[in-house]
Design goal:
- The chain is α/β, with parallel strands linked by helices.
- It has two domains: 220 residues, Spore Coat Polysaccharide Biosynthesis Protein SpsA, Chain A (Alpha-Beta Complex); 160 residues, 60s Ribosomal Protein L30, Chain: A (2-Layer Sandwich), CATH 3.30.1330.50.
- The longest helix has 17 residues.
């Protein structure tokens, strides 16, 4: 007999949301200078595109992220996303001759498992916030097309052909278009296909594609900080912003010191700060005997209160025989990152009569910066002699002193 109790209605399923990241552009600047395209340039040690992808993967409402890349950028892309092990990040697809063609390629790649909504976003906008994504998704519950933009707050002038002001344009109801631009998948896919079938190309904005198909486009505020990284100034400001955010998140400042010494013996050169310098002697040690990196590793471990290099890499362990000391330094930096911290600065002083460090100083600074994943302006390398005194003065060995500043979140252990 049927139950007289009415079953509660089941909640409606959440709409599925896919993201298309447009990253097929090459850029005139990159082509002319040999630099990688801007989406693969690094910000605070990480590729821009990886930061953008992660911004969406960290949002609970996103089901799939698909990147459209230039066919020549497969290796760049693979290297950039290494470590982003999330099943929602699907294999990239090659783009077309322009943005419109690339977006169509991305939409076609989603056809087999068509989502309810699709968000199309510039790969070089890594600062998109979750609340802006929320606003786009929420609006798609009642609209076909949604444009994430920024209201214009500056006075706008229109120029004539000679470059003089022709008129002042009222800024009320003016917006700067940005991304993500959100759409109901079936409608935007059909709109793109229709334009391609008519031979209309060069449309640079997906909202414009929706407009040409007769759809209204709702504007939502995406935040003024959702900038598109284009110029050198953009990247400089982005670096400063990320550095400031990282520092504010880690107010517990700790300083560690390290000291090391290795004996010199006949040989063909020494390795200091990860750089080999030809010389008539070499440093004796279980690893490559890089006295400078050993001191710096100890300085970082000291700031963490985490023992010393001998504790983590004992000379009795044959795994480290002849090992590059950069491995030890990387491990110390990893320990900082595991505790949510950052290496803010490091400084190394090498004490030796020979070889001369000066000609190699900048190479050493860059090698340390690369190993630690920090900018070179946060690395100091100095050298001094012992004025002929002691073991260093007699050229019996080389010593190094290092200082490291580590910042950790409050409550770190």
């Amino acid at each position: 007999m049927p139950s007289s109790v009415t079953s509660p209605s089941r909640p409606a399923a959440r709409p599925t949301v896919a993201v298309i990241l447009v990253a097929a552009g090459r850029g005139i600047r990159a082509a002319s200078t040999g630099e990688p395209p801007k989406q693969y340039r690094h910000l605070q040690g990480r590729p821009v595109i990886a930061r953008t992808i992660e911004a969406f993967l960290n949002h609970p409402g996103i089901d799939r992220v698909l990147t459209v890349i230039h066919p020549d950028d497969r290796d760049l892309y693979a290297k950039a996303v290494a470590g982003l092990d999330d099943p929602r990040l699907v294999l990239p697809v090659p783009g077309g001759a322009d943005r419109q063609a690339s977006c169509l390629a991305g939409l076609a790649a989603l056809a087999a498992t068509a989502p309810d909504y699709v968000l199309i976003h510039d790969a070089v906008r890594p600062f998109i916030r979750h609340d802006a994504i929320d606003r786009v998704i929420e609006a798609l519950g009642r609209e076909v097309a949604v444009l994430c933009g920024v209201p214009v707050i500056d006075t706008v002038k229109r120029a004539d052909e000679a470059g003089y002001v022709a008129e002042t344009v009222p800024r009320e109801r003016l917006w700067r278009a940005a991304t993500p631009q959100g759409f109901r998948y079936k409608e935007i896919a059909a709109a793109h296909k229709a334009l391609a079938a008519r031979g209309i190309t060069g449309v640079t904005d997906d909202a414009a594609v929706a407009e040409l198909a007769g759809h209204r486009v709702l504007l939502v505020d995406g935040g003024a900080d959702n900038i598109k990284l284009t110029t050198a100034e953009d990247f400089q400001m982005a670096e400063q912003r990320l550095a400031a955010e990282a520092f504010l998140a880690c107010p517990d400042v700790r300083v560690g010191t390290g000291y090391d010494v290795h004996v010199l013996e006949p040989g063909d050169g020494v390795t200091l700060c990860g750089v080999f310098i030809p010389h008539d002697q070499r440093l004796k040690g279980h690893s490559d005997a890089d006295v400078a990196l050993h001191a710096l590793t100890d300085a970082i471990l000291g700031a963490l209160g985490d023992g010393d290099i001998g504790k983590h890499f004992p000379p009795s362990d044959n795994r480290w025989r002849g090992a590059a000391s950069a491995l030890f330094l990387k491990d110390a930096v990893r320990r900082v990152a595991e505790r949510g911290g950052i290496l803010a600065h490091c400084d190394v002083t090498i004490i030796a009569e020979a070889p001369k460090v000066g000609p190699h100083r900048e190479t050493m600074r860059q090698a340390i910066a690369d190993t630690c994943g920090i900018t070179v302006d946060r690395v100091g390398v100095k050298a001094t002699t012992n004025e002929g005194l002691g073991f260093a003065g007699r050229r019996e060995g080389i010593a190094a002193i290092a200082t490291a500043t580590v910042r950790l979140p409050l409550g770190g252990v």
